[in-house]
Amino acid sequence: MRAIRVHEFGDPDVLRLEELPEPRPVDEEVLVRVQAAGVNPVDTYVRAGAYGTLPALPYTPGSDAAGVLQDGGARVYVAGSLSGTYAEYALCRRDQVYLLPDQLSFAQGAALGVPYVTAYRALFQRAHAVQGETVLVHGASGGVGLAAVQFALAAGLTVVGTAGSDAGRELVAAQGAESVFDHRDPLHLHAACQAVGGRGFDLIVELLANVNLGDDLSALAHGGRVVVVGSRGTVELDPRDLMNTDGAVLGMLLPNATSQDLSAAHAAVGKGLREGSLRPVVSRELPLAEAPRAHRHLMERPALGKLVLVP
Ligand code: NAP
């Protein structure tokens, strides 16, 4: 099979297309013929060697995909893989594979694993979001942000989002967000608070905490919570802003989720897909061989949903 291999950590050009033997499943493993593989920011951190836990070299990147089970032909999406998903075939544990409803394309299925489970965990397992609350999705145009917007709307929250481009703001508004602001505008948080009556937010899902966390604390309503999902550096903040509202800052990292947490999240994803409240948005499909370009695009271009690789 053809697969992307990384022999040394480094810039995107270390992602090389190679021929490999097809993996063979044993015991509780299954083989998935990959039709689309999701590209996540964490794939780029690992490729660069800049992540807490690194795989042994050489390795095939990727944990998200959608395709068909080699045995039986069922349509599935993949959330985690033993062999990596940037390939024609991915070896998975049975519990890493979930049925993909017929109305979803394979590219949409590749957008589910990390983004939707992260969004669910941030909103409901960490911040305990409830109907009627207000939420600011700070970075709503990407894979996790759009998933958070859709989950929050389905749960009856009032959603305000941010995006850095006109097209991103249009996309977030089209999902049903009450209003959408430009996170590059220094005054955007003030405007976002005005959009919910000047009271501040019950919840902020933060996708770039190193830039925004300090200001987020003064945009919270009484008892508000910020969930830090993404951060790429350090930040200065004034703890008094948190004291003023009895506010809280919560962290989350997907690998910390227990198997019960993951089961609950995937059950919620399945329900939302069946009911139509969850509709993954694919920004772009690139051929597998263009994995280096995909990694560059992900880090350099405005987000408009999910970037996927097609073997
Ligand atoms: P993505 O699809 O590349 O989206 C990145 C998002 O960040 C876009 O909405 C982008 O908006 C937004 N952004 C850029 N500048 C911003 C700013 N100044 N303020 C607020 N948002 C800003 O990536 P993703 O898959 O959604 O992941 C987002 C982040 O979450 C990444 O850092 C990722 O590593 C992290 N993450 C963490 C976990 C976890 O377990 N904690 C799991 C998944 C992802 P524009 O492009 O429109 O400017």
Architecture overview:
This protein is an alpha/beta fold and 311 residues long. Helix content is 31%, strand content 27%. It has helices at residues 41-47, 106-109, 113-126, 143-154, 166-174, 188-195, 209-216, 239-244, 259-275, 291-300; strands spanning 2-6, 15-19, 29-38, 64-69, 75-79, 89-93, 97-99, 134-138, 158-163, 179-182, 201-206, 220-228, 248-251, 282-287, 306-310. Strands 3, 4, 5, 6, 7, 14 and 15 form a 7-stranded mixed sheet that branches. It has a 6-stranded parallel sheet with strand order 10-9-8-11-12-13, with helices on both faces. A hairpin with a 5-residue loop joins strand 4 (64-69) and strand 5 (75-79). It is globular, with a radius of gyration of 19 Å. 49% of the residues are buried. The model has no long low-confidence stretch (mean pLDDT 98). The chain binds NADP nicotinamide-adenine-dinucleotide phosphate. NADP nicotinamide-adenine-dinucleotide phosphate (NAP) binds next to helix 1, helix 3, helix 4, strand 9 and helix 7.
Strand content: 25-35%
- Biggest beta-sheet profile: 7 strands, mixed
Poorly predicted tracts of residues: none
Structural class per helix/strand content?
A: alpha/beta
Residue share in helices?
25-40%
Number of helices: 10
Order of helices and strands: EEEHEEEEHHEHEHEHEHEHEHEHE
Determine the mean pLDDT. 98
Radius of gyration using CA atoms only: 19 Å
Strands, total number: 15
* Rough outline: globular
